[in-house]
Amino acid sequence: MDNKLIDLQGISKSYGKNLILNNLDLYIKENEFLTLLGPSGCGKTTTLRIIGGFESPDSGKVIFDNQDITDLPPNKRHLNTIFQKYALFTHMTIAENIAFGLKIAKKSKTYIDDKIKYALKLVNLDGFENRMADSLSGGQQQRIAIARAIVNEPKVLLLDEPLGALDLKLRQDMQYELIRLKNELGITFIYVTHDQEEALTMSDTIVVMNQGYIQQMGTPEMIYNEPENAFVADFIGDSNIIASTMIEDEVVEILGAKFKCVDKGFGNNTPVDVVIRPEDVELVEPQMGTIQGLVTHLIFKGVHYEMEVEANGFKWLVQSTKLVPVGTRVGIVVDPFNIQIMNKPESEDEEAVTLDE
Fold this sequence. Notes:
This protein has about 350 residues and is of the alpha+beta class. It has two domains: about 5-225, Rossmann fold; about 240-350, CATH 2.40.50.140. The protein has helices at about 45-50, 95-105, 110-120, 140-150, 170-185, 195-200, 220-225, 230-235, 350; strands at about 5-15, 20-30, 35, 60-65, 65-70, 80, 155-160, 190-195, 205-210, 215-220, 240-250, 250-255, 255-260, 270-275, 280-285, 290-300, 305-310, 315-320, 330-335, 340-345. The longest helix has 18 residues, at about 170-185.
């Protein structure tokens, strides 16, 4: 790929007997917002630290802009890292915090002053030069950490759970802020999070990791709508995952009932897993349904109702803007396009749906 900026080749890393990354291959394109997503202990932060030079791989190479930088120290790499703990110098002013890296690089005072003004404008904190870092709110401190990183003009910004300490509203504001910055600056963002919504909102590409392996890599739409295995389906949003049988092309038997689907090539009478998102389950009059069930739970979630429907021995999760009271008999219908067929997992890694959550 011509615009490949970072290429991780066969990266493995262990701490003692714990294998964290196992022969990982990953490429990152220029100007991409790529998110490493997965539960605690899946290897996403270790991957980020290896890219940043804070950890050395046991084997494999880190190629950056066609150069092997595997053994290069962090300060020699053309990238900056922003951590969840912003690591601002509390005894310094905002201007001094932002200028720190530029002073070490021996830039002129005029250059530094211009850069400070530019960076503060970019993160919407004009006029904050002389404030002390510890007088700022969490969101403001995060913006200063970003400003301090971008004045060094890195080709890549590494972000390790940078919004984890912020409250929900502020976190959502900062998500939009980061998308804006990425578009304005034209630099590559590599972002680590365990928050699925964050990943879906901000990323061009999501890399779903579990137990040191990449489970799936693709656009947010692809990861959400076409999960490759049960782990991905369950980790990205809510899912109904049901052991089923592919009768033939475009016909799948789910809980004893035949449903039309659009998938082909699984063979006849093949055991498969089916993924149906809760918003894709349609509740109708009992006689109109492919199968029938009973509404057993109901919660109001603001934008929709979340219901549990017991049907053919399975508890279906259903999300709908229409309220169906508990105790109502219903039919279940699913559009063929909304039934996602997956091969049965070949390994426990693919099956480890709730292992680290």
